[in-house]
Model the fold of this input.
Amino acid sequence: MIIDLEKFSTVERPAWEELEKLLNRFENEPAFRPTVEQARQFHYLYERTSADLAKLVTFSAEPELRRYLENLVARAYSEIHETRGAQKRFSPLNWFLRTLPQTFRRHVKAFYLSLAVTIAGCAFGALALAFDPEAKAVIMPFAHLAGDPSDRVAKEEAVKEDRLSGAKTTFSGELMTHNTRVSILTLALGMTWGIGTIISLFYNGVILGAVALDYVRAGEIKFLLGWLMPHGVIEIPAILIAGQAGLILANALIGWGKRERLGQRFRAIAPDLVTLIFGVGVMLIWAGFIEAFLSQYHEPVIPYAAKIGFGCIELMLLILFLARSGKRAEAAADRELVQATAT
Amino acid sequence: MTRTNTLLIKTPEGVVFSQTLAGPIARFMAWLIDLALMLALLIGVSFAMVFLSIITPDFAAALRTILFFVITIGYAMTLEWIWRGQTIGKRAMGLRVVDAYGLKLQFSQVAIRNLLRIVDLLPGLYVVGGLATLFTRKAQRLGDLAANTVVIRIPKISQPNLAQFGADKYNSLRAYPHLCARLRQRVSPAEASAVLQAIVRRDEFDATARVLLFAELADHFKSKVEFPAEAVAEIADEQYVRNVADVLYRTETKRAAGILPASETRQDAKGTLVT
Done:
């Protein structure tokens, strides 16, 4: 049987057009909240158009009209069947103080793994330098780290004028963007089943371990701490969190012991990955400022004790923030969930 | 793994709708357009910073570094979020990023597919991403896989022009309503579609192909139902096929002629048609 296409189209078109108008409102006005009547009408129009599409597919094969209806049904379907939480108005403060630390804690095992890989890298770097001092040029291919640490310290402490004068903001911007790029790469390499992420974390650890040993052996521990701590206590955890995100991604890709399909596993972690990587971005902006405006100035300009003290305060605040921030809200949400389940 | 260029989604209501997946070439072209626009933006920023550097060189250089980063990372992310899955390049190529399950595109999906572009670009010119689109079932690059998104072609939607049947012309087949009814009964939707498409696209064929196509179609439908010789005498094959289409798609009822019984079609209080 073939349906009378012209009659069908004439009779049904007003409903399609009304649905299209509503869809345009939904799509173009993010703040649009339909009334109960509008929502009911929208659902009715969706079901009616779906029925029309089914009828058309069964009793006719007119491709143009079919494409038109498929497009309408697809758009309406995405509006009606979205079960993920409605996108509330984004509050940056709420995101930073609650969502970010809660997300970090939810995946803390991945963070510990990221930390373990970096520590292993540090150990490797330190051991490599201890056993083969010639390897320094390979492990630390940076001009300012190539020479003897004591010479560098003497040179830095003897500097009278501000070397970064007129270039501090530029240096800060370069640090922020470079480190954020490295962090994004560390996250993205999770798609290599985590191998790329692990290599990236390990390599960072190797450099850190070698630099630390080099300065410790030269007896420049105070300089090392004063130089690295103000920015490093934020920058290094930021890279570790990027690694954590990469490992979460890898875990979803591998799916050990999980019954969900690949798509469902990725869907479950997507918001967490975005939260973590944007959190890393915020941390690296701070670290970039500190590195350019504070870390590069040594005694006698800024006493090492002050720099190390500042770094310790930052580290304590960071640990407190990641461990405690948003905990009360989390507990309240858990209680609500238990009550809802009980009733 | 079976590859297809169509994404089929079945709704809980049992209705299946399809979306045509975009191929790697169309996507690459869209990316080239976006790349050109990004380069234009970066050049614009550089020029602006030259002027700013007269006042504050350090701040201008820092701002340029940050804006370069923001443009390269944020261009596609921002546009795809604001324009629901489209950048300027995708708009030009008629493409759109959508959720792989047909649901609403979330910001996290847009962010992930764009952040993971860094891996898809490796080792250069989208080699990893391009290969992934060739080997994944839904033509997804790695960023799309992780974000659960697909890139589809936006259909060019237009209402079919049914006037092409020539409704105002005399149709000799209609003199035999019982044979018309038999024809409607015996013709499948796919056959009817072939007729409709042949008529809609008749001006696109070259003359010989057009004659051959309509001759073949006419023979096919003549074998389905045999109309008396006087009904088909001196009718060209193309006219015969148009008459067949007219019979198939337009039943001659009072409603088709625009006389609709009030009891069958009315408008409710909200102006919605209810039948």
Notes: The CA atoms of residues 13 and 98 of chain B lie 21 Å apart. The longest strand of chain B covers residues 6-10. Residues 162-249 of chain B form one domain. Chain B touches chain A through 73 residues (CB under 8 Å).
